[in-house]
Amino acid sequence: MDTKTVYEQLTNVNIEQQKQIWDERGKGYYGEYLLFCELYRSVSGNSKILMNLNIPTDNSKTTEIDLILIHETGLYVFEIKHYKGTIYGKDSDAIWTQYFRTVQNSKFKNPINQNRYHILALKKLFPDMPMHSCIVFTNHDCDIRVANSNDEISVCTLSNINRTLKNRFLNSTSKYSMEDIDSIFVKLSAYSQMKEPVTINHTEADFFSWVQPTITKLEEKKDEVENLKSTWNNNIKQLKKTRIKGIIANIIVAILCVVLATAYCSSVIQKNNDILAEFKQNFLHIDEIDNKYIDALNSYVDVSNISLKPLTDDAVTFSARIAITNDIYGIALTENSKYIVITNSGKVFEYDVFGEHLRYSRIGNMIGKGIRGYGDLANVQFYGISNTEDISYIKITNIELFKLDVSRTIVKDKLEIELYSN
After folding, report:
1. In degrees to the nearest 10, what's the CA dihedral of 278, 282, 285, 291?
2. What is the pLDDT of residue 422?
3. Which of 38, 210, 278, 326 has a Cα at 20 to 30 A from 151?
4. For every residue of the chain, which 3-state class applies, written as one string?
5. pLDDT the model gives residue 285
6. Exposed, middle or buried: residue 360 (CB in 10 Å: 0-12, 13-18, 19+)?
7. Tens digits of per-residue pLDDT, 195-238?
8. How far is Cα 252 from Cα 242, in angstroms, rounded to an integer?
9. With contact defined as beta carbons under 8 Å apart, do 11 and 193 qualify?
């Protein structure tokens, strides 16, 4: 059987029909199907899969579990989300945020809490069995920015599920034989929507019999490949016989290609060098090269109390204090102020200073003599950077320079301040 057929056997859901309907539940089925395919192909060790189980709870109701992997190291309980966008949240938050650049953000319940409820129900059936909570986002257009401090819970994308499970298996003890796994499978099957067992010659088929037709097809494809390989080798032999006749022509063509390629590559290299030089200049200052205001601004702004610490495997935190040493001018952060971070490898990251978690206030972000001499930058999280030693440079852009007069006259905008240099 192919994976679609086995999936329908386990869930009683035809994934092709769901893709045609493609409502919200259909999308959910498709996410479950993608994870099923990944586990079906790749999980190591003795295991079986069950999907869409309705497990009884205390209040005479049931809770639906997307997928359970019965493995020799324990039960792996999956909560599956087929969401797009960037996912923000903490393991301790009740609500997580689904962020989009072009449309309104969406809120949803913390799936870790949902899965904790599922595991509590399973603990009544298997009180002594190790259970692992896995939250998987299956949409390829999804980026996870979740701060998870609980080592017993895994939050990952579909592309990382195999690596995540391998680490779990390595850190767990193999306790269950194939007979134990079959017994657990039979007990849990009573709560699933799976069809009647597949039978071959009036006998329930084992797992190998399920996949034997697929293996047979692969063997047939292997024979086809061998035949194509033999034909290819014969063609190569024929080409070798005629190669000498065209060798002189080939050499001439090769020389011409080298000459043309060299000329073309030289022009491309020059063009790329010009683009790179222009990029370096444009990055040096946001609005104009050799800006006298930018040079002056950095000369009388004092940066202190710098804190740069690791947060997670994929994020660091940063904060600092900005103080003004000039009696004539003051500065103000704007709604468009951004952090620009450069790593040792040359990557450039951009983060908004203000947004969903930190609201902008012009009065609260003005610094200068007679107003307030300094201001502390709020603690910010730089996602996508593994550790603090990777950072070589940090600056903040879109700063306004104003006079310390009654009207707070703006002298220049879109300026920048260097905050950190390693």
Report:
1. 60
2. 81
3. 38
4. CCHHHHHHHHHCCCHHHHHHHCCHHHHHHHHHHHHHHHHHHHCCCCEEEEEEEEEECCCCCEEEEEEEEEECCEEEEEEEECCCEEEEEECCCCEEEEECCCCCCEEEECHHHHHHHHHHHHHHHCCCCCEEEEEEECCCCEEEEEECCCCCEEEEEHHHHHHHHHHHHHCCCCCCCHHHHHHHHHHHHCCCCCCCCCEECCEECCHHHHHHHHHHHHHHHHHHHHHHHHHHHHHHHHHHHHHHHHHHHHHHHHHHHHHHHHHHHHHHHHHHHHHHHHHHHHHHCCCCCCCHHHHHHHHCEEEEEEEEEEEECCEEEEEEEEEECCCCEEEEEEEEEEEEEEECCCCEEEEECCCCCCCCCCHHHEEECCCECEEECCCEEEECCCCHHHEEEEEEEEEEEEECCCCCCEEEEEEEEEEEEC
5. 43
6. middle
7. 655 555 666 555 455 545 555 655 566 666 677 777 777 777 77
8. 17
9. yes
Q: If 0-12 CB within 10 Å is exposed, 13-18 middle and 19+ buried, where does residue 50 land?
A: buried
What the block records as the tokens of 396 is: 């903040």
341-379 tens-digit pLDDT: 998 888 888 999 888 778 888 888 899 888 888 889 988
| Arithmetic mean of pLDDT, 306-335 | 89
Q: What is the mean pLDDT of residues 161-174?
A: 92
Q: Which two tokens stand for residue 277?
A: 């030089």
Lowest mean pLDDT among 27-36, 210-219, 254-263, 411-420: 210-219
CA-CA distance, 67 to 35, in Å (whole number)? Answer: 9
Assign 25 a pLDDT band (cuts: 50, 70, 90). very low
**Helix axis angle, 161-170 relative to 24-42, nearest 10°?**
50
Give the other-Cβ count within 10 Å of 397's Cβ: 20
**Structural contact between residues 87 and 143, judged by C-beta atoms closer than 8 angstroms:** yes
Name the pTM for this structure. 0.46
